[in-house]
Amino acid sequence: MPEETTEARPAPGPLDALTDVAGLRVGHASVPGEGALSGTTVVLAPEGGAVAAVDVRGGGPGTRETDALDPRNLVQRIDAVVLTGGSAYGLDAASGVMAWLEEQGRGVRVGPDPSQVVPVVPAACLFDLGRGGDWRARPDAATGRAAVEAAAASGQGARVPEGTVGAGTGAVAGRLKGGVGTASARLASGTTVAALAVVNAAGSVVDPRTGVLYGEYGAGEPPVPPEPAAHEAALRRLAEIRRAQEAAAEKSRTEEDGARGSGVFNTTIAVVATDASLTRAQAQKLAGTAHDGLARAVRPVHLLTDGDTVFALSTDRHPLPPEPVAALNDILAAGADALARAVVKAARAARGAGGPGGTFPSYSELYGASRDGREPLA
Fold first, then answer.
1. Which residues are within 8 A (CB) of 334 and not within 5 positions of it... i.e. 6 or more apart?
2. Given 77, 101, 200, 346, which residue has the most CB atoms within 10 angstroms?
3. Does residue 300 have a cis bond before it (omega within 30 degrees)?
4. What pLDDT is stored for residue 248 in this prediction?
5. Measured at the alpha carbon of residue 214, what is the angle toward residues 208 and 215, in degrees to the nearest 5?
């Protein structure tokens, strides 16, 4: 494991959430109906937008408007980021967000009238098709509108529901139920750095030797492993589920008895944000180094069947000092740490799911409630 430094780690912000970055709001919406296990999460920037960037590392990404975030290109700020289930179909959720933003007069102004705007809405999707049993139950424009309206209605500094919500509704991490998690850090300079992750990984979030969540290693204090008996019981339960799913898949191939969820295609998508004033190039660096946190918390990561994508946002509230290298390094390190902790929190807050699309137990079901005493927020 990586060596620990003697330096104190930054404390979490008041909410330990993305909304500790003042001005950011988060809204979730799930696809309704029987057989549905999918949804959308929207991060809404403050009025005037946020500096944005993106870094895509997975081999099978599904994205929208990410080229607009290249520092060489025209668009300077964006008003919302969409994280969604439904694979490429789910990217339609961004059109509902775009329509809502147009109604608010928010976007890139392209005409003499203030209402003549084109909202730029970057989005990334994860694969959860069929996880609830219905292949066609996936986010659309109405889901995106519901999520952005929930974000707008949440108010400043609102708590962020975690676990099996929004884009994390149908997420799966390895053989466990995935979901949404969020974390933040308040630096000594007063700058806040935070992350929100939707964990839907092909790799595992759990060390198979101990049952410890990978992201807990190097978190400041040594993790407390589950009791060996609990870990052995969890491994047996996962083996039973795997055998049952393999038998069901064989039956599906021979009887053609309908769609079943697939664990082959995945993707973890995230937003890391800060209230520090960053250029677009600096924001892109933040998105890239945040992937280091993802690599600490998920193993293996960035596979061909993942589409791992991290967006970075700067709300431009606190200028960097004239010699910004040290300050920027602190922000980059905090972004990676926050994303690793967000993955841990997603795994702990998730609720298990089961049905025609498969059985996906949660970490808390297998190993008991969180040992840190915090209740999952759902």
1. 10, 185, 187, 193
2. 346
3. yes
4. 66
5. 165
